[in-house]
Amino acid sequence: MNNKAHLSIQGLNQIINIKASINLGLSHFLKSEFINFTPVERPIINTEIIPDPNWVAGFVTGEGSFDVRINRQSTNKVGYRVQLRVRISQHDDSRDLKLMEILAKYLGAGKLYKYPGKPAVVLTIFNFSDINNLIIPFFETNPLLGVKLMDFTDWCKVAKLINEGSHLTKEGIDLIRDIQSGMNTGRKKTNI
Question: Which residue ranges does the chain devote to CATH 3.10.28.10?
């Protein structure tokens, strides 16, 4: 793009070929518009170790999410259950699956899930003890960047409320809902 190659059909096709090989590939629309695309071959990187904790922070900044789930639960006095969750997703090819296995081992938490009909594997961490004792301290020491840091900060506020038992009161649930509504896609640009 610096060389303005994207302004030619050949350059645009090169970009489409690169996009076809990363993340979840091309959308159905792009596939219909660029029928002769050829995904570029991604190099295989064989590693058994995570190079640096800051690499994990960068990886999660790009590929992870922190969310709060509030579900009805009749057995709970307040009628709701609050759950924190971290999710990190990648392709489900053997290379990315191995990376996710190494990442789970490195973090010491989480389970890998393959969702039917989706070409991705997701490392999900929802055990509150793991979140409290492993994940929060890890990202406090190895900070995330950008908007992801803001989502993590809000997520930690909810963890603190859970630790204090506030999630067992109507007022606490309302406060958690308020925090949740401003996270991820609910975050307004003015909050950044």
Answer: 53-191
Query: What residues contact residue 33 under an 8 Å CB cut-off, 6+ apart?
Result: none
Tell me whether strands 120-125 and 80-91 are parallel, antiparallel or unpaired. antiparallel
- Tell me how far apart the alpha carbons of residues 117 and 191 are, in angstroms, rounded to a whole number: 35
Q: How far apart are CA 181 and CA 187, in angstroms?
A: 8
**Which residues neighbour 63 within 8 Å (Cβ) at sequence distance 6 or greater?**
88, 89, 90
Taking the alpha carbons of 130, 136, 137, 138 in that order, is the dihedral positive or negative?
positive
- Residue 109, SS3? coil
Q: Identify the CA nearest to 113 among candidates 103, 105, 102, 125.
A: 125
Residues in the chain with pLDDT values less than 70: 23-24, 43-47, 92-95, 189-192
pLDDT tens by residue, 122-156: 999 999 999 999 999 999 999 999 999 999 999 99
Give dist(CA 20, CA 182) in Å, integer.
32
Tokens of 31: 């596939």
Task: Identify the H or E element spanning 163.
Answer: helix 146-163
CATH class of 53-191: alpha beta
